Amino acid sequence: MDTKYWGPSGWSLLHLITIAESNPSPQYKKNLECFFSTLSYVLPCKYCRASLSEYVTEHPLEKALESDKPYALARWLWTIHNCVNAKLRSQKLHVEDDPPFVDVKKRYIERFEAGCTRTKFEGWEFLFSIVENHPYSKQSLSGIPIPGAPDLTDATDLEKNRWNVLPAADRQKYVEKFWRCLPSILPYSEWKTIWEDCQVDWSSRSSSLKTLWQIRCKMETELELLNKTTYHSLCYELKKHRSGCAKSKRAKTCRKNRHAK
């Protein structure tokens, strides 16, 4: 999936989640670990999964969660975001200068304090792109490994994930965990309640799409969200932003060719 489509949406949701609690409780830290430990496996772009696998090795999530400093997890995510920006710059892609952490914190605290009704839900493009790139979807199953992999005979899941050779059944376990853990770390109780009240089935692309659409409709209605859409428009957008990177050997990022139709 084209990173220009789902990337901004994903960063907005993730930053909001990490800002909502300056000093998470031990139980909330467990919930955060449950969720964030899956990100490397669920991103809807094999090159993004590869990069994040490297970044979380260099900047361990566990270290941020063990810290007693306020906003330690938010600072960790800011660091990861800066790593992504640095890679994009190395690929000669235009990226704005990295904002200071204090500015990021201020921006998302203000967003958090704005509440969750009659506003936008950050994350739809990100979440639906994850659904579209379901491990058992056609585009995922037709994906090929990233060239240059070392011997992976005794590799960990993260190492296999880095080279896009993790079997679909193994990646699906992380996808199921991602969706299971997400409601517990959503920043508003209203969001959590709606998610937890809905029947879910993340076993396939079609069932996941149906599940997430059901959740979205319920949130749009009950919270009077501003970023509404129709099912037809959603499906059109998802199809429009497929990048085809899963089958690519030479690409460096999942950005759709601007000349592609």
UniProtKB/TrEMBL annotation:
<keyword id="KW-1015">Disulfide bond</keyword>
<keyword id="KW-0274">FAD</keyword>
<dbReference type="Pfam" id="PF04777">
    <property type="entry name" value="Evr1_Alr"/>
</dbReference>
<dbReference type="GO" id="GO:0016971">
    <property type="term" value="F:flavin-dependent sulfhydryl oxidase activity"/>
</dbReference>
<dbReference type="InterPro" id="IPR017905">
    <property type="entry name" value="ERV/ALR_sulphydryl_oxidase"/>
</dbReference>
<dbReference type="GO" id="GO:0005739">
    <property type="term" value="C:mitochondrion"/>
</dbReference>
<dbReference type="InterPro" id="IPR039799">
    <property type="entry name" value="ALR/ERV"/>
</dbReference>
<dbReference type="InterPro" id="IPR036774">
    <property type="entry name" value="ERV/ALR_sulphydryl_oxid_sf"/>
</dbReference>
<feature type="domain" description="ERV/ALR sulfhydryl oxidase">
    <location>
        <begin position="1"/>
        <end position="108"/>
    </location>
</feature>
<keyword id="KW-0285">Flavoprotein</keyword>
<keyword id="KW-0560">Oxidoreductase</keyword>
<protein>
    <recommendedName>
        <fullName>thiol oxidase</fullName>
        <ecNumber>1.8.3.2</ecNumber>
    </recommendedName>
</protein>
<dbReference type="GO" id="GO:0050660">
    <property type="term" value="F:flavin adenine dinucleotide binding"/>
</dbReference>
